[in-house]
Amino acid sequence: MLDHKLFRVALALLVGLAVAIPTSGAALAAPPSNDNFASATVIGALPFSDSVDNTEATIEPDEPQFCSFSPQTVWWSFTPAANVVVRADMTGSSFFDTTFTLYEAVGSGFGGLNALNCTSFGGSITFNAQAGTTYYLQAGSIFTGGGSLSLNLQEVPPPPNDNFASATAIGALPFTQSMDITAATTEAGEPTPSCAIFNGPVSKTAWLAFTPATNGPISASVFNTPFSPVVAAYTGSALNNLTEVGSRCFGGKLTFQANAGTTYYFQVAGLFGQGGPLQFLLEVTPPPVANFGFSPGDPSVFDTIQFFDFSFDPGEVGIQSQAWDFGDGATATGCCPTHRYAADGDYTVQLTVTTFDGRTASASQIVQVRTHDVTITKLSAPQSASAGQTRTITVSIRNTRYPELVQVQLYKSVPGGFQFVGFVNVNVPVRPSNRTSDIKFSYIFTSDDAAIGKVTFRAVVTLLSARDAFPADNEAISSPPTKVR
Q1: Which of 219, 378, 390, 467 is most buried, by CB atoms within 10 Å?
Q2: What radius of gyration do the chain's Cα atoms show?
Q3: Are 236 and 243 spatial neighbours (Cβ–Cβ below 8 Å)?
Q4: What is the CATH number of domain 164-284?
């Protein structure tokens, strides 16, 4: 009889074979035609678009994986007949995790590939393709099982104002223009901006021209760039006779005084041979923005007020001078003067700032000087008392300026210091001359007081509605001590 264990093993093998062997009508899906490096799809002309299903694509032994690993890659090759700037992307693919790598062929096979750039999850690669050099593009998916994969290549042309002779004419200000200098070039004899001499070559430039109708400062800037920009201004009529007015590297504004009827040429570029999209702005330089602060914010006649200049120049020339008028007849210059007012009142303080190129602006604020000050003139306590006896402790407060809400705290002496007794919040009116407001506390003397034999009282008054301008006289101690028996 056949052993049951052997029978089950044999049956399992037969079932496995049945699953592994396709039926007579089925066919395995073929990999795409450009699955292998040797069969890369040849890109003949630009623009070029190609869609491939890489679901059944594979990778070859020793195939490079420079940017992100993909188990299903396809290949394209491109050999331009002339130098051209190319932008490649994978827009239109059916999966999000696309990845593709650009190689330059410097030899044969995988060993002759030099990786130039790569991108994953969208994005594009822009490169300068040299005539007669073969470039390979390897594309795939990182996580997904493949699908429709689309590659697009197009030539990036130089900007229309690539050359000095074709500089964009600027009619009126403000003027703004978006441009792409990815494929821009430099002409023979083209000047290098002075700020760029020690900051790398300038090899991609574009030009603009402006002739102002009136004298005055103008500002040029380049922004919204993925690279380090440079802008320079020149006077002259040709590349060989240009005189630089000024230049600005790494962003910011180039500001200068323009003369009516003079044509100014603006050269925009990227440092270190960089290029890409940018936005150019030429505008009449705005005035500086004047602003200041001061401390303390609630000054009194006892305070020396510190003023701070917070002004700035949007033209980025800088603030040259500051002139202050304190509103009481006093003036000052410089960034951070101090001033003390002789009497309470509302004073209009004005700051006028001037830039290095003569633009001005002013700002003013009202400084309210209010001297809040209360004084404890006397703390009265009985000369003697007995344990259990209730006596009155009187705190005399002088206030000559403004009605004040105050808190009066009372302490008594104990071994090692003072102990809190109680407090009262009270409105203290204004009283002329030496008249005072008397705040009375009822205190019951204790057996502990009697054991010590004497008690000294301490009073502290605190303003609750303002800052006390002279807190040194807000405390008092009774004298002589009260004898307790």
Answers
A1: 219
A2: 43
A3: yes
A4: 2.60.120.1220
